[in-house]
Predict the 3D structure of the following.
Amino acid sequence: MNHLFLTICLLLVLAVPATALDQKFSAKVLSEINLARSQPHTYAQFLREFRDRFQGDFYLQPGIASRVQTSEGVKAVDEAITFLSRQKPLPPLAWSNGLAAAADELAEEQGRSGEIGHVGKRSQGMQERIERHGKWENHIAENIGYGPDDPRNMVMQLIISDGVTNRGHRTNTFSMAFNAAGVSCGPHPDYDSMCVIDFAGGFRE
């Protein structure tokens, strides 16, 4: 039986410098996801260091005088640290050009429109976008993060899943159902940067 999973991460950015993101950034995001999957205890330490940036429900951006508001503060970070401390290593995800192309459709559209969410007016929904570029197997899912302009910070925020009740980004990131992924990151007019990550159990272009 085929399954679809959708999750979205929205961060309230008070002051983040605009950054031009490209394919190299996207590749680094998948590398960070694979590091988290293969070395979850190492990633737990990254989150412990990130936790020290918090002042109430805000955390400080390193090196610049900007703050990012969260919904749950350190509670969600602590939960993610506990999860990672117990998580067993998983195989890395293979890069898929087809999945990356599907992700790019949404990132490109929202980079112009400023909209958020998994459904674009022109690019349509996740399944429609993915199926335009090939055939997926078993499961597909999508994570979207808005705000962080650094690959590690982007992946940490998706793992933390602040404000997402079911922690869907974390579930997708560490799911054994997925063997391939494609990433597209780019600028966003309201949140400065964004990344779309499309996952699949398998994908044939």
